[in-house]
Every structure is written in C-alpha cells, then in structure tokens.
C-alpha cells in the first residue's frame, strides 16, 4: 500500500491511496474459505461447494468490503500520523469507469485543512461587562409581591379597582367554560375595567377577548384555550361573578421577616430590600456572564481573520445529513454555520495554547456542588459526604451528563480566562436598562 499527498494550497489537499492485491488478497481468501465451509447450496454437501462457485457468488462483495475497510483504516492512520488537522471528513473523488475486476486500485480523497493563524486577544475597544442590579422600582414591586403572597383576601360586595374576582368565563360556541380568579389590575384599558367597577356577585359582564389583556397568553390560563388559538382570538365571552375579594397586604413586621428568612438577619424593611437586591444580583450574574461570553465571541471572530476551505466545506455539507443537499441548500447551510465554525477554531486554539482542561476532580467537585444546591432546595442543608459521593458517581456514569457538565465547566474556565486576559469595562445597570441596551 502506498499513500501520498498533494497540497493544492494551504487549505486544500488531495490524498491518494494505492492498494495492491497483496494488501487484501490473504484476508479475502480466508473469508471466502470460511464461506465455503458454511455455505448451503442445493446439490452440494456442506463444506464441499466448489471454490469457483463461492467466488462467483460472494467474491466481489467480499472484495469490496475488505478493500473499503482497509482503505478507511489506512486513511485514518495516515491523518493521525501526519498530524493533519482537517475540517469535516475526507471526501472521495469520483472515479469514472472504476473497475473492481482489476488487481490493484487507486483512490483519491479531498481534504479541507484547518487554517493556521495567530490568536489575537486585543480588541479594538474594551468589552462591556455588565453588573446588573435591581432598581428601586423592581425592589419595591418585589416587596409588594411578598406582601400579597403572605397577605389575605377580604370578601366584598361591590367590585373596585385592584380587586380580585372569582368567576366563570363562558362562550358555548368556542367551548369556553372555565372558572378562574381574575385580578382586575390585569385588564387592559379603562373600557374593560369600567365594566367591572361597581359590579356585584351574580352579575354577568360581557367582554371581547381581543384587547382584553396586554398579553394574549393570559387567555390560555384564564379561558383555558389552546396556545395557538389564543393569539388574535376575537370572540365575545361572558364573565359571571361568583366572589369579590380585596387583597389585604401583609404587614412588614418581624413575624413576616422571620417567616421569610428564619436564619438570617432581616429585621427591617431596609434589610428586606437589601436582601432582595442581593438575591437579584445573584440571579442576574448568569445573564451578565452569558452576555459577556456572547460579546467576547463576536469580538474574537471580528479580531481573528482567516480563510476557510469554503468550497470543500460546502461539498462536505451536501453529504453529511440524513439526506443529500443540493448545492444551493449547502451554500445556505454553510452561510448560517460559518461564524460558529470560525469561533470553534478560535476557541479550540485558545484552549490548547492556554492549557485549559476539565480534569476529573473539577468534574466531581462541580457535580457535588450542583447536587448540594438541589438538595438544599428540599431542605437538606447538611448531606453526608458519602451520600454526595454516591449520587455524584451515579450522575457521572452517564456519558451524556458528563459531556453536558464538562461543557459547563469549560465555559466557566473560558469566562475566567476572558475576565483576566481581555480588556473589559465594568458598567452597572438596572435590569430594565440592561434589557433596553441589549435588545434595543
């Protein structure tokens, strides 16, 4: 067997594999002899079928199979030994009038080579690292929600603004018949609200679903209609009032603080607001870090320019799916995935050059921490070390879970690397301002 490579340019090459009869003949003969021993052909005793007949019936199929196995093994070994960093998989070149009746064969494969480039981490402008905090309005709203959650409902006879009504939405033609609680503050517009003001138990209010709520998704919950149907639903419904209640807010006192934070120092409204702010910051940190990863990704792609074997990759994309793609479809798919491929190469080089790796001890420690967090949610705040180790062992016996956790750990390592090595500027923003700035 002989393997040679011709470099077309820095990103494309052709590998030629020449297979001679002596490379495969012994293996093919052995398989055919085994076939002969076990072949059941009418007119011949088992094991006494003429070899010529066995070769005629099975010879070419066995030959093709063995040559292909030999070809793939040789090609994979060659790529490994030559340390060729290829993109996609080798693509066999079409050979017209290929003849399996010959003794020697020659195969050619196109290769797409990974580009060589120097990693540049110096961005033109500092990348913003957002420190997202809860604003006063958000904190005040959260305090009010806590007061509502731990408050009580007081029965009333006449409906007023901000009351909560229990009743039934009905429309026989649409099959709507659902009893629910309706906070009047959820209604959209004064026209809808005014229909309820002054109403009493037993009254029937006629409404239109279109424009009843700010968000059509509330129709799914309150009318129990299908999600797809809720969008732009425009029908008449009747709401029969069964109960009228006023939400009486819980007092902000020591009893409530102890109920909310049994083992923590929360003794005043100021302490409560500070606690809400701290908890919100922890939740917002994940969004802040994810945004930083997104922004660094864009910056590194912009900063590191290199060519790709575009034509090769488009041809390869045509062949890798469940069904072959047309050239136009492959070009479209390549366009959609090109930026992701570029960052994959940048990230791979960054990980390799900076020796970022996920070790088993990292994986186990990370898994144990996730388990402890989940157990704490169910009141288990001090689990035994053996129990944690046993659960972690079961989790890490699942290869899909290992892959998922490893990706999370590597993302954390990359995030730490970016924070230390890429020029950042810190910016404190409220959550509302963050959403406006990112999704403007």
Description:
The structure is a single chain. The chain has 440 residues and is of the alpha+beta class. It folds into three domains: 112 residues, Alpha-Beta Plaits; 97 residues, Chitinase A, domain 3 (Roll), CATH 3.10.50; 172 residues, Trigger factor, domain 2 (Orthogonal Bundle). It has 14 helices and eleven strands. The strands form three sheets. Strands 6, 7, 8, 9 and 10 form a five-stranded antiparallel sheet that branches. A four-stranded antiparallel sheet has the order 1-2-4-3, with helices on both faces. A two-stranded parallel ribbon has the order 5-11. A hairpin with a 4-residue loop joins strand 1 and strand 2. Helix 3 packs across helix 8, helix 8 packs across helix 10 and helix 11 packs across helix 12.
Summarize this, please?
This protein is α+β, with helices and mostly antiparallel strands and 440 residues long.
Number of helices: 14
Stretches with pLDDT under 50, minimum 5 residues: none
How many β-strand runs?
Answer: 11
- Overall geometry comes to elongated
CATH class of the largest domain, please?
Mainly Alpha
Topology as a string of helices (H) and strands (E): EEHHEEEHEEEHEHHEHHHHHHHEH
Q: Mean pLDDT, nearest integer? A: 92
| Corresponding CATH architecture of the largest domain | Orthogonal Bundle
Percentage of helical residues? 40-55%
Cα-to-Cα separation, first versus last residue: 62 Å
Structural class: alpha+beta
Main β-sheet description: 5 strands, antiparallel
CATH third-tier fold name of the largest domain: Trigger factor, domain 2
Total count of domains:
3
Strand content: 15-25%
Radius of gyration: 35 Å
């Amino acid at each position: 067997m002989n393997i040679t490579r011709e470099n077309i340019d820095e990103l494309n090459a052709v590998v030629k594999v020449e297979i001679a009869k002596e490379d495969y003949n012994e293996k093919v003969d052995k398989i055919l002899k085994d076939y002969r021993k076990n072949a059941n052909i009418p007119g011949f005793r088992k094991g006494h079928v003429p070899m010529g007949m066995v070769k005629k019936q099975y010879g070419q199929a066995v030959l093709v199979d063995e040559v292909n196995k030999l070809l793939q093994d040789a090609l994979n070994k060659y790529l490994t030994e030559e340390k060729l960093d290829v993109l996609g998989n080798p693509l066999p070149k079409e050979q017209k009038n290929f003849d399996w009746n010959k003794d020697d064969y020659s195969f050619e494969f196109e290769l797409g080579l990974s580009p060589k480039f120097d990693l540049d981490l110096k961005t033109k402008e500092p990348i913003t690292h957002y420190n997202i905090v809860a604003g006063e309005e958000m904190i005040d709203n959260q305090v009010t929600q806590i007061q509502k959650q731990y408050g009580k409902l007081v029965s009333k006879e006449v409906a007023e603004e901000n009351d909560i009504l229990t009743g039934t939405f009905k429309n026989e033609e649409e099959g709507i018949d659902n009893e629910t609680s309706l906070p009047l503050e959820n209604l959209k517009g004064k026209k809808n609200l005014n229909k309820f003001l002054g109403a009493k138990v037993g009254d029937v209010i006629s409404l239109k679903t279109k424009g009843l709520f700010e968000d059509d998704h509330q129709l799914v919950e309150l009318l129990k209609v299908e999600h797809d149907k809720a969008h732009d639903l425009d029908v008449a419904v009747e709401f029969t009032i069964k109960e009228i209640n006023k939400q009486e807010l819980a007092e902000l006192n020591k009893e409530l603080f102890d109920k909310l934070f049994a083992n923590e120092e929360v003794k005043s409204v100021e302490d409560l607001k500070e606690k809400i702010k701290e908890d919100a910051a922890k939740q917002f940190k994940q969004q802040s870090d994810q945004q930083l990863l997104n922004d660094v990704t864009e910056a590194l792609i912009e900063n590191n320019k290199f060519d790709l074997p575009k034509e090769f990759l488009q041809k390869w994309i045509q062949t890798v799916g469940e069904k072959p793609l047309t050239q136009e479809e492959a070009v479209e798919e390549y366009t959609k995935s090109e930026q992701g491929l570029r960052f994959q190469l940048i990230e791979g080089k960054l990980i390799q050059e900076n020796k970022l790796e996920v070790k088993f001890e990292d994986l186990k420690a990370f898994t144990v921490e996730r388990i402890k967090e989940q157990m704490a949610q169910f009141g288990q705040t001090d689990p035994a070390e053996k129990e944690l180790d046993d659960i972690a062992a079961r989790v890490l016996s699942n290869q899909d879970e290992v892959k998922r956790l490893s990706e999370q750990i590597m993302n954390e390592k990359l995030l730490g690397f970016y924070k230390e090595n890429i020029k950042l500027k810190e910016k404190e923003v409220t959550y509302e301002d963050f959403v406006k700035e990112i999704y403007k």
